[in-house]
Amino acid sequence: MASGSPSPADELLTVRDLIRYAVSRFGAARLSYGHGTATALDEAAFLVLESLSLPIDDLGPWLDARLTLAERLKLVDLFETRITTRKPAPYLVGKAYIQGIGFRVDERVIIPRSYLGELIVTGTLGPEGLGLIADPYQVETVLDLCTGSGCLAILAAMTFPAAAVDAVDLSADALEVAKLNVADHQAGDHVKLHQGDLFGPLAGRRYDLIITNPPYVAAAEVAAFPPEYASEPVLAHIGGADGLDIVRRILAEAGTYLTAGGGLLCEIGTGRDILEAEFPYLPFLWIDTAESEGEVFWLSAESLARRG
């Protein structure tokens, strides 16, 4: 935009105006979503609320709020950056949320959006839910494999207050971001970060609970990613020809690292049919969430010990 030329911000006075403008611009640009939002409206609302340091859970109270010129210019510029770079909104504002809890993100980590966050935070696994964990206070050790930003490890530390949580990732860059999140949430006494390949740094340790959201996207799908998904580290997505190479490795080793009464909670995307056909002797318990069906499984230590 040439210096001195009119800006859309000159006429967009309220939050409602900015939201409407962004939705129109995003729709015309045919953006892709899925990094915490599913529609142009949700994306616009997130960018506006987060950029203005407003609570992101309710747009309603702010719709008719008038913004300063500086705020309007900032938002219009942010919308244009979203369109021209095609970077996911959380990268542009440096923040993503799971179950309303915020975590720092940048291009060094995949943007957290795991279904496991819901299962951990809402107590679905506990005595009032599925009963897979009889008493959260009796969980003493938790492992988060492929931790990325560290969000699931931190949520586990919040949910299981007596637990020591180990969090492992192959990427040193991702662990630098996880370190910031651990500090932000004052979780350093409970969460320890380890660099390595899956169970590699953990010889001899056993856990009451292993949680993992590993890379599980097939190579051909990664190659066809829209720009938003291609902005994320490919290491955090690619899982081999059918997406399940890393999941197979976890299944082969997890039993060795579980306590007798422990269990494995794993997100795998859409590979359920493949796993059930390949491992007919494993009694997968498939757990649905608010936004997924048949993409998360639970296996007990006992069932993994019996694998054929």
From TrEMBL:
Q: Which GO terms describe its molecular function?
A: nucleic acid binding; protein-glutamine N-methyltransferase activity
Single GO cellular component annotation?
Answer: ribosome
Q: Where does this protein come from, organism-wise?
A: Phreatobacter stygius
Into which EC class is this enzyme placed?
A: transferase
Enumerate the UniProt keywords alphabetically: Methyltransferase, Ribonucleoprotein, Ribosomal protein, S-adenosyl-L-methionine, Transferase
Q: Which residues form the Methyltransferase small domain?
A: 140-221
Q: What is its EC number?
A: 2.1.1.298
What is the protein name for this chain? Answer: 50S ribosomal protein L3 N(5)-glutamine methyltransferase
**GO BP annotations listed:** methylation
Q: PROSITE patterns recorded for this chain? A: N6_MTASE
The UniProt entry, under CDD domains, shows: AdoMet_MTases (cd02440)
